[in-house]
Amino acid sequence: xxxxxxxxxxxxxxxxxxxxxxxxxxxxxxxxxxxxxxxxxxxxxxxxxxxxxxxxxxxxxxxxxxxxxxxxxxxxxxxxxxxxxxxxxxxxxxxxxxxxxxxxxxxxxxxxxxxxxxxxxxxxxxxxxxxxxxxxxxxxxxxxxxxxxxxxxxxxxxxxxxxxxxxxxxxxxxxxxxxxxxx
Length: 183
What we know:
By secondary structure, the protein is an alpha+beta fold. The chain has two helices and nine strands; from the N terminus they run αββββαβββββ. The chain has a single domain, classed as Lipid/polyisoprenoid-binding, YceI-like (Lipocalin).
């Protein structure tokens, strides 16, 4: 299963390379990490996905990533099952993606730089414009991108059955951490 995922991620990244400009300042990862946390009265829910493919072009400031939804890992098997079948409907919407720009990043500087990322987030079949804060840090030849922001489930047509409304927050905190390698 992991080898099939690696083939899909490699194909995705190759397709992105073809569409991006020919600049030499490209960074990529096949193991970016996205996690989320739902703080709810009855039970907190958290999951992480270490299988996110992404590419960042430091010259154009373009960033793209794709998230295979089924690769989110939960502490409880039943949470994962409900997440995929009832909420995210991964049989209909197997991937989430983002395409946008990183504003405020200076490829000539090292150290942590505050940035604002703007673009289109596709989640659960709905595409919305988002602007989120983050940081980028160039260290030891690797570029580390981090962001923490909240999304509202209703904005992406993710419905929570009335019977479990106390188990899931209306707003979910999302964290992103990508460690890119230079191409």
